[in-house]
Specification:
Elements lengths: L5 E4 L3 E5 L5 E6 L2 E4 L4 E4 L3 H18 L6 E4 L4 E5 L2 E2 L2 E8 L2 H7 L6 E11 L8 E2 L1 H6 L5 H24 L2 E12 L5 E4 L7 E5 L9 H4 L5 H13 L2
Antiparallel strand pairs: 1-2, 2-3, 3-7, 4-5, 6-7, 8-12, 9-10, 9-12, 10-11, 12-13, 12-14
The structure holds adenosine-5'-diphosphate and uridine-5'-diphosphate.
Adenosine-5'-diphosphate binds next to strand 2, strand 7 and strand 12.
């Protein structure tokens, strides 16, 4: 499978067409951005880690009954995925308070919730990905009622699988962002990526941050954190 034309260049990945109209190739870059693109940098080796980690976790999720866009890893940075039409919602699940939740509601980071929370933002860079609820999503025709119900069911299932798996690596899954897409035959599948760019991951014993917050907050040790997660996940 080979890339043909580039369809899109995003902040962290490029997307290419292939000879098969139902498949595309995503190519992971080392570029890092935060605060809706205002902060820019690179994290050496990030593209390789995010590609491998995302593919590994998506294959695990498939086995647990979550349909994903994953098809085949081509090399360190490139993966064949089902071409989907992305539902323009960022789906955020939280198990522990952090980031914008802590800021928004004026609470400290690290409060463990009895039940996970879910929230949606409208995936629209020009508007700064504003928060919205299901009724807003319906009013804006971003998805149907059935699609939103399926997205919620799958997102909570992803959380259960990943949270339990991360604990075996001595990692707390604090929160994460998912994107879903619709295949040509109308099935909702998990798309985009699952990586330290899109999850908050804390060491279970020390609460050391092993994710992109080290870049967002200029904490240093960014590459080391990505490498540490990769080592725990895949022994690499
Ligand atoms: P952004 O667009 O936020 O800068 P990326 O750099 O990660 O993000 O770009 C990847 C783009 O590809 C995203 O817009 C994402 O929604 C989209 N995408 C992810 N998976 C698929 C897929 N299977 N089919 C089509 N587009 C996808
Ligand atoms: N997230 C993401 N992309 C975004 C916004 C958030 O991957 O555009 C992830 C982020 O890595 C974290 C979770 O979603 O794991 C919750 O992020 P939050 O709402 O706290 O926003 P932030 O503090 O990153 O602004």
């Amino acid at each position: 499978m080979e890339k043909t034309v580039q369809l899109y260049e995003g902040k962290a990945k490029k997307v290419y067409a292939t000879a098969d109209e139902n498949l595309c190739i995503v190519s992971y870059k080392d570029d890092a951005t935060a605060f809706n693109g205002q902060k820019k940098g690179t994290i050496a080796g990030k593209g390789v880690i995010n590609n491998k980690m995302s593919n590994f976790l998506m294959q695990m999720l498939e086995k647990e009954g979550v349909p994903t866009h994953f098809v085949e890893e081509l090399n360190d940075r490139d993966t064949v995925v089902k071409k989907v039409s992305i539902v323009p919602l960022e789906v955020i699940i939280r198990n522990i308070s952090a980031g914008s939740f802590a800021k928004h509601y004026g609470v400290e980071e690290g409060i463990v919730f009895d039940e996970p929370t879910i929230e949606f933002s409208y995936k629209n860079d020009d508007l700064g990905d504003p928060l919205l609820n299901e009724y807003h999503a319906l009013a804006l025709k971003l998805a149907t009622k059935d699609e939103i119900a399926e997205i919620k069911r799958l997102a909570f299932k992803v959380n259960e699988v990943l949270k339990a798996y991360m604990l075996t690596l001595n990692v707390r899954l604090v929160d994460f962002k998912l994107e879903f897409g619709k295949t040509a035959d109308g099935q909702i599948v998990l798309a985009d990526e699952i990586s330290p760019d899109t999850c908050r991951l804390w060491d279970k014993d020390t609460n050391e941050k092993l994710d992109k917050d080290r870049f967002r907050r200029d904490m240093g040790g960014v590459e080391d954190a990505y490498n540490e997660i990769m080592r725990r996940l895949m022994g690499e």
